[in-house]
Amino acid sequence: MEQNMMLAYYAAGAGALALLFALFTLASILKEDMGTPKMREISEAVHEGAMAYLNRQYKTLIPFALIIFVLLWAAQYFVEQQPGSHLPVGPASAISFLVGACLSAVAGYLGMTSTTKSNARTAEAARSHGLAKALNVSFRAGAVMGLSVAGLGLLGVSVLYIIFGNPLIINSFAFGASAIAFFARVGGGIYTKAADVGADLVGKVEAGIPEDDPRNPAVIADNVGDNVGDTAGMGADLFESYAATTIAAMLIGNTLFGFPGIIFPLLVGAIGIVAAIIGTFFVRTSEDGNPQAALNVGLWVTNILTAAGTFFLAKAIFVGETAAIATGVFMAVLAGLIVNVAVGYLTELYTGTGKPSVTRIAEASKSGPATNVIHGLAVGMESTFIPMLVFAGAIYFAFWSVGSAAPADKAGLWAIYGIAMAAMGMLSSAGMVVAMDSFGPVADNAGGIAEMAELPPEVRVKTDKLDAVGNTTAAIAKGFAIGSAALTALALFSAYVDGVKHKFGLEEFVVNMTEPMVLVGIFIGGAVPFLVGSQTMRAVGEAAYGMVEEVRRQFREIPGLLEGKPGAKADYARCVDIATRSAISKMIAPGIVAVTAPVLVGFLLGAKALAGFLGGLTTVGVLLALFLANAGGAWDNAKKWIEQGNLGGKKSEPHKAAVVGDTVGDPCKDTSGPAMNPLIKVAGTISLILGPLLTRL
């Protein structure tokens, strides 16, 4: 066992390697030139605003985290424990929860520091060296976030397993990560959309000034919001996915195969990290090259190396009586990697600029905002069907690939491990996917700095080229997050079922849809995503209202601001503060719903009702996430397609209608839609803890 446990140290070492590489990359970025004093001033304003938001967010969450920490520690004295069994409560579980929460915050700080310190440097690289250098700087900034997410996730899980030696004890690590991620995703989404909607409606629509114009008081808040949402929010989202999937796979593997089943997902994560580090060196382009193609090469290299490494790993780990499923487990991981590619392609198909779905929305804008919104809703609804088939196909293939190779009397049980490994395969490339996503806000901010610092027009052309790619990678990352939520939820559900069986001493735990309590759970679970969606949508509307009124006030009361007269300066800090206060105050209610709903269902209605709740929540949550994210992305790119000169271009009637549609889509794709992912996973991770504690079936 001592020799075997050394493998866990290898996994922890891979996590540490990712962190060291991220810190080395960050140090190299900070050596780049920030440009003119004006560029430096704007960049520092964005950095200070982003850090102020993060500090206030985490200070708000400290009491919440401490309450759960105390409850997990004290619960051991109120729950009956059978001799020889382990309950997911007590000091070890409480510590694991706190570690998960803290590492999620650390990942957010590292990523936010990198992206907000890189925006001016990217703009200066575009000005002094060209597109290739600008891509290099902005992608390296994203890689800091991506490798921090994967590295901290794997390091945290591995070290806790080495210390406590039982995946059941440390599953609260995933709960800590998911609880923080929900608040980070919702709060970040509210912040970024409040600032974006306020800046667009008053600046672009009412005042007719360009995006990122320094006269707009909300422009700094808008740039801060890009980082808060797509860096800290997305990073926290995928950090919890990474942790939850790894621990769920370890729990299932421990029940079925013992140590080999535990160590395999940890080592798959290690292979994925090494592959992502190697993949970063392949993201290169020429001055007239295609940045999207360069990023795709990095992702393909990561996926191919992960697949190759997993093949040999499966052959080395699964030996003896489990040797027959080694190839099947590898095929399950491969299915997860294929879902990565498929989700990205489908997201681009429905949301890409110039794609038929998007141009139809743009054409509908000729008859006004109403038809634009109607066509956008139709695209969002249509876009859910094929991705759900892809998820279903991957689940079936993973189940079949392991089950068909297993002994007949163990086929069904062993096949569940295949599903968990499909989720692990998908998350193994998280380092590269988060890097591609976080690169987007850097490019977007660089364009804003070029505009506000009055750099030559050709600089903005280069940063806009990167920004357009960033919009695509952000959409792909949202699809990746949704897909990871779907597969992670199934792995968590399987682990929950395993915990209930052990609790009640059952050979099987059957969830029968004809049982009234199961149906009650399904209906409640299916309704919760809509409740949370409505809360987050309303929060954006209310926060944006405050931002709109503030921008109007400054245009009205600051002499010469709108006209751009010398000496007239907008109060950027006031808008940053409004967005921060609104986001922090309005993220609490959805968070309470997310955390308390599964607890109430489990203890009041029982284990089967909670199983139904998880099924209903997952199905509706994934569908709603796809619908909202893709509809919002399609509305956004329909507006951009018109701005490229089609249908009359900017300030035309179709453009005005498309701006309205984009404004509707903003909270869909950046707040309510992304909130579904951590909602699904926080319910699953809480249920892992609840399963062995429930008192009734």
Task: List its traits.
globular, mainly alpha, 20 helices, 697 residues, 0% strand
Mean pLDDT: 86
Helix count, per DSSP? 20
Separation, N- and C-terminal Cα atoms? 37 Å
Strand content: under 5%
- Domains (count): 1
How would the global form be characterised? globular
Give me the Rg, rounded.
24 Å
Major sheet attributes: none
What is the SS-derived class? mainly alpha
Question: How helical, in percent, are the residues?
Answer: over 70%
What does the model show?
This protein is mainly α. The protein has one domain (2-693). The protein is built from 20 helices and no strands. Helix 10 packs across helix 19.
SSE diagram, text form:
Elements: H1 2-30, H2 37-74, H3 91-128, H4 131-164, H5 172-207, H6 219-257, H7 259-280, H8 291-317, H9 326-351, H10 356-364, H11 369-382, H12 385-403, H13 411-427, H14 430-452, H15 457-504, H16 516-557, H17 572-586, H18 588-605, H19 607-643, H20 653-690
Helix pairs in contact: 1-4, 1-7, 2-3, 2-6, 2-14, 2-17, 3-4, 3-5, 3-6, 3-14, 3-15, 4-6, 4-7, 4-14, 5-6, 5-16, 5-17, 5-18, 5-20, 6-7, 6-13, 6-14, 6-15, 6-17, 6-20, 7-8, 7-13, 8-9, 9-12, 9-13, 9-15, 10-11, 10-19, 11-19, 11-20, 12-13, 13-15, 14-15, 15-19, 15-20, ...
Membrane topology: Multi-pass membrane protein
Main location: membrane
Transmembrane segments: 6-30, 61-79, 91-112, 137-162, 168-186, 263-283, 295-318, 324-346, 384-402, 414-435, 475-497, 509-532, 587-607, 613-635
